[in-house]
Input
Amino acid sequence: MFYYSYSQQGYEVPRMQLDLDKRAITYLPGVGPRRAEILKQEIGVSSYEDLLYYFPYKYIDRSRFYRVNEVTGNMPFIQLKGKIVLFDQIGEGRTKRLIAKFTDGTGTIDLVWFKGLAYVTQKLKTDTEYIVFGRPTEFGHTYNIVHPDVDPIEQAGQVANGLTPYYNTTERMKKAFLNSRALQNLQYTLLNSLGWKVPETLPEAVLAKTHLMPLSEAMRHIHFPESVQKLREAQVRLKFDELFFIQLHILQTAQDRKLHLRGIPFPRVGTYFNTFYKDYLPFELTNAQKRVVKEIRADMGSGRQMNRLLQGDVGSGKTLVGLLAMLLALDNGCQACMMAPTEILATQHYATVKAFLQDMDIQVALLTGSTKKRERDKILPAIARGEIQIVIGTHALIEDTVIFSSLGLAIIDEQHRFGVEQRARLWKKNTQTVPHVLVMTATPIPRTLAMTLYGDLDVSVIDELPPGRKPIVTLHRYDTKRKELFNFLRKEIEKGRQVYVVYPLIEGNEKLDYKSLEEGFEVFKEEFKEYTVCMVHGRLKPADKEREMQRFVSGEAQILLATTVIEVGVNVPNASVMVIESAERFGLSQLHQLRGRVGRGAEQSYCILVSSYKLSHETRKRLEIMVNSNNGFEIAEADLRLRGQGDIEGTRQSGEGLDLKIANLATDGQILQYARSIAAEILNEDPQLMSETYRLLNERLRQLFSGKLNWRLIS
Ligand code: ADP
Ligand code: MG
Output
């Protein structure tokens, strides 16, 4: 929290009192060392501030009291008002339980405890009016409520006046009596000790402009909502807070970079670019490609360092755009490199680029983990001397032994597979200045996520496929209908087409997954005796993988069985059918990526999602979306809605997953947009946040993001 509160009254609260992030939770009355340890380990709460920001995950309406004689066997959580008339302990050992007969004059119901009996008997008394909250269950001829919440009637107001918050807890916490209720009590103790005042994080000017609820009030209503309306306002305020500071951080970082990092200016569009464009480009660029090339040209010509994310659906022609950008670098006397996440993809890019440039005098090299030493010994010095102008490769590119003479542009394909650290090392490849960076991704990222994860990158979008592509027809089939599937595949193969069959390979389940791939291989070989079936997976040696792949690329094999190693990049235009086995086990964007492997030629292509019959509601929805949409962005949005942000592919892999406490990128797009616009306005007014008005923001930023200092500079 802040050292000072810049409150309306203008007084300063002493630092000690407000340093909530530095005050250890162990000192909060009711916690102590043992519980503090548990809170830290289980939910990461170690300071006063951590606890305040540990928000309820749901609220239950306790606005109405039921009468005991209204209780039936299938009610949700309800509350009753009455007295305990009698306690009774029955059973021995594990069946030992405490029963309290509870009545409100209309009838009697049993309250039952199996655990914490001593505590309950000590706390609860007969003939005292209580509020009881819980879920009634039918038990013989009567009803009972197991482990209810019981509060003295005087606390009715504090019991949240209708809305009861629920906090996530773990088994271990519950054993230490740190259940949801206990957490709420701790919140009460904490807020009470602060006089229900929490240092404000937003300057007055921002509060005035946005009409957001002050933080103190928001903290009160998020933990002890007075009404649904107040709760909503509190939620909006806290979500805004969370998103606002992220955006402020991102935008300020981007702004600093623009101010301080000078890029290598590429003023010329020269012979390489023009010759290729006029004489060798085998087709007309799509309008989207033209637009993006213009954006890239403007960026690299500006003297600023380009840091651009290029999004485009699979097959939209990103590689070609990348190639044009590389030619611009060459035209300006620089080298360029392109880094791909897998050997297969790097090799394919290399082949593509070589083919495009075959009639031009440009030196291109491939550098991967399996480049032979002899070859490497030739390539590395040539890169260092600047003779090799374009280098395409895998992680091998970022090894220290790779030294460029003048790297002007680094392209990173399918970036979510590279960590931030790896991207940073590519940056350092040019010691004088930072090369321009173009990140290409075929995993469409929902706008809200993009704004948050890559909010500091400029974004170009190719939203148009090259002409003449027939939309892929996607079908969902149950694995019980194998005969029909085989018949369909046979018909397609007879027409001269090739078929991919992909099996899931999920971490932690490799053994079984490989087994089903091997079994599938036997089945397909048996079924398609007259054809050739080949197989690639991650356990093959690179050379064997390459050979098998080649059998398919050359057309010798009609069917390729694979794990997701083919996910990225392979381009076999004649392959027009993609069968995805156990499709229910893939994520949406992964399914979409795989589907993008077909539909590259002129024929009608198919994607067949094979699943078992038993599917969860969510999975069924997922497959339905695939059947109904070919649009990567639509799918990404749907994915975000279905699964929430935590699970989106690409965020976890990149190791920079967002840890949002209250905002939800799937549903809070509007708040995010608003927060971003306010952040931008403020930075426009006061770029360094040094004015009296905004100094508070500076301190909060430092508190929130120090330690993660400037990692965004390298994305
Ligand atoms: P991405 O990397 O975006 O998935 P690619 O760059 O691999 O897509 O392009 C897919 C295919 O489309 C390639 O065979 C490429 O040569 C071709 N292609 C790219 N741009 C065009 C265009 N403007 N017109 C026709 N074909 C194109
Ligand atoms: Mg590609």
Remarks:
- Residues 398 and 426 are 6 Å apart (CA to CA).
- Confidence is low (pLDDT under 50) at residues 1-17, 646-657, 708-715.
- Residues 228-260 form the longest helix (33 residues).
